[in-house]
Amino acid sequence: MRVLTAIPVYNEAKHVREVLAEVRQYTPDILVVNDGSTDGTAELLDREPGLLRIDHPQNRGYGAALISAFAFARASTFDVLVTMDCDGQHQPERISVLLEAIHDCDIVSGSRYFRDFRQDTPAPTDRRFINATITREINAKYGFNLTDTFCGFKAYRREALEKLNITERGWGMPLQLWVQAARQELRVKEIGVPRLYLDPNRAFGGVMNDPEQRLAYYRAVLASAERDELPAARAAACCPCPGTR
């Protein structure tokens, strides 16, 4: 199984070298999507050997960085794409847990609320409330049994990426993903990952800093995803993973 690990990066000069050093211990093939960083991140990446790299000339958004990673993976010969953040919240040693879980699924998603870990930190109140609200609404409508619909630590089979048409460039991209996964009857599974908020004051930026507007935006993404034009679905190879659909 050939694995590519993709890391979207925007202004992560503080973390990027340490994160890459850790990721290299667990996966040799790393794609960094530099989403228009202006803080010296690009110059630090120039010093990193052996990286696959995409540079957006300007910041396009979290979802846009993953769209670029998905396109790269679809055009490659890798079997599985792992995605993780660059802010230190995702632990690279858990890549192996994602890969162990994907043998009978299309998408494996990390969950910060699936189980407790000794190193867990409290989630900011508004983020936890919005995550729980949106997760409950997605489960009710699409028959999932998810506990965390926003975690960016995931593994995707390349064949699953070919069934998706992700266009949401902002923070709501994971919600479009779940709607499309349900519509395409993809097999999904969650695994527990530690809940690490290293900087609880880190903001989304702009109107997204307002919890009410953020929740309204997320619901608009869900509604819009119902109308997405999707690639022709093929029959699933086996039944959905237990406890998920």
Query: Mean of residue pLDDT?
Result: 89
- Estimated radius of gyration: 17 Å
Share in β-strands? 5-15%
Major sheet size, sense and barrel closure: 7 strands, mixed
Low-confidence stretches: 234-240
Structural class: alpha/beta
What is the helical fraction, as a range of percent?
25-40%
Q: Assign an overall shape.
A: globular
Q: How many helical elements?
A: 8
Strand order of the largest sheet: 3-2-1-4-6-5-7
What is the end-to-end distance? 25 Å
Helix-strand topology string: EHEHEHEHEHEHHEH
Q: Find the count of extended strands (DSSP E, 2+ residues).
A: 7
Pfam families: Glycos_transf_2
Domain Glycosyltransferase 2-like: 7-164
Protein name: Glycosyltransferase family 2 protein
Keywords:
15% strand; 7 strands; alpha/beta; 245 residues; single chain
Notes on the structure:
- By secondary structure, this protein is an alpha/beta fold.
- It has a 7-stranded mixed β-sheet with strand order 3-2-1-4-6-5-7, with helices on both faces.
- Residues 234-240 have low confidence and may be disordered.
- α2 (41-46) links the parallel β2 and β3.
- It has helices at 16-23, 41-46, 62-74, 95-101, 125-142, 158-161, 173-183, 211-225; strands spanning 3-9, 30-35, 52-56, 80-83, 107-111, 154-157, 188-192.
- Helix content is 33%, strand content 15%.
- It contains 8 helices and 7 strands.
